[in-house]
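User: Structure with magnesium ion, tokens only please.
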Amino acid sequence: MSVHPDVRRMTVPQLLACKGHRKVVALTAHNVSTARILDDYVDFILIGDSTAMVAYGLPNTLSITLEQIAQHTAAVVRGTQRACVIADMPFGSYQESPAQAFRSAAYLLEHGADAIKLEGGSVMATTVEYLVSRGIPVLAHIGLMPQYVNTMGGYLAQGRTEESAKRVMDDAKALEAAGAFGIVLEGLAEAVAANISSAVSALTIGIGASVSCDGQILVTEDMLGLSGSRVPKFVKRYANLENEMRQAVERYADEVRSSKFPELQHCFAVKKD
Ligand SMILES: Nc1nc(=O)c2c([nH]1)NC[C@@H]1CN(c3ccc(C(=O)N[C@@H](CCC(=O)O)C(=O)O)cc3)CN21
Ligand SMILES: CC(C)C(=O)C(=O)O
Ligand SMILES: [Mg+2]
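Assistant:
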């Protein structure tokens, strides 16, 4: 990157300044071609651990490694200029201790991330404070936490009982006090998301948590119709790129088989004399 880039990347303080003024727009990406397109439209791009599922075909988000997320982060950074880039901390890279979390988060910042995201409520407050006080902006993630799939027994919406609603509100307040600049609210009852969004000064980013959040995020493959038929209830399909890709690939296959492609314009001629 040049010393004086014409285009400035959105910073975490600028993201936070959106609270109460305008909605924050976010999507996931893990490669250059997608990141380059998103860069013109979103405030931040998340390299989600959902990459495990949408890019690697793994059954859940648990087995993607820090090294994999770091490489996908570097790719997204190379494909973007304006969007803030936030990397998901993979399972096992931060739960052990604040020091372990710092080492992992620093590794992701070394690969170009502007901030990191980690899952967990009050239990992560000490870790969040440790990271933020040492220069690493933290986006927290509560409600439906996919890295807890084995203890939760599934991807279940949260905040639907009084007890659950109170727990999630307490988590949000603990993370705010620890210094998280934002909190992803996933799979959360609408009223609870609304209460949290007005109770905390941190930015709330919803996914399946209603329009009351300060911003929204979705997995890009889901909203583009590229992740098959089984998508979470909270996904809205803005395109059906699977159909488009099928049509294009079918046409290519037909043209190769019928020798219609390639044509002369796609070929090199021998140089004259
Ligand atoms: N492609 C993709 N999109 C995602 O949004 C996503 C991932 N992968 N991987 C990690 C997690 C898993 N997510 C999920 C997966 C399934 C449901 C789901 O099926 N939920 C039920 C409701 C469950 C209940 O509370 O009863 C649903 O009907 O949507 C929700 C979130 C969200 N995250
Ligand atoms: C959907 C977002 C919030 C996420 O954590 C992911 O993609 O991994
Ligand atoms: Mg994630």
